[in-house]
User: Fold this.
Amino acid sequence: MPIHRRDTPTTARHTTREPGEREPPTSARDFLPARRTLPSLRRAAAECRGCPLWRNATQTVFGEGLAKARLMLVGEMPGDREDLAGRPFVGPAGKLLDDALEAAGIERGDVYVTNVVKHFKWVPRGKRRLHRTPDVAEIRACLPWLEAEIDVVKPYALVCLGATAAKALLGPGFRVLRDRGRFVDSPLAPRVSATVHPSALLRMRDRNERDEALERLITDLAAVKAELDKSA
Ligand code: SF4
Assistant:
């Protein structure tokens, strides 16, 4: 699979195991089912212990959408609301994404939405759970799920939402603010691009700045819609 990754995780190995004792899992790869469909992958991912993130999360948040979706959107990881609901993009960022998709002429029901990392990473701040960006080892450990989702769905267009997804899938040299909106050669899908994550807009305090950012997000998605229409 052509995702930008190293196959061998760099997690330190323990040396105190008894002879014959199995190594602890260091990647989602150890949990992949033999027969891969979206339902079987979803069931298997619910039991994933491929990295430590499952310990503090409510549940695995697997991707959602039609197995034949022509557009796949890939974000970073589930947030607080998604962790509780067990569904991707259902919080405030998801609502903003829905609005942007609608403005771009894309039906959310036609899109498969998922994340690079399937468990919520957070730290407590009073009563709140604050998002923490997943590190390289966690991203690497979780990528087998996304690889499997792409293999099953085979989207015509794939859009990375935000820097974490873009760097994981398109390489560390990819800069979302510089390279957003343009289609790049990638074995992931016939049309691959990246744009900002909608949560970045929610962090903008200035109304004009936020409106402008929303317009740019819609423009990036509309370009994808045009490609989908051309290929239909
Ligand atoms: S974040 Fe990914 S690799 Fe880590 S436990 Fe969750 S599903 Fe498995």
User: Anything to note?
Assistant: The two ends are 25 Å apart (CA to CA).
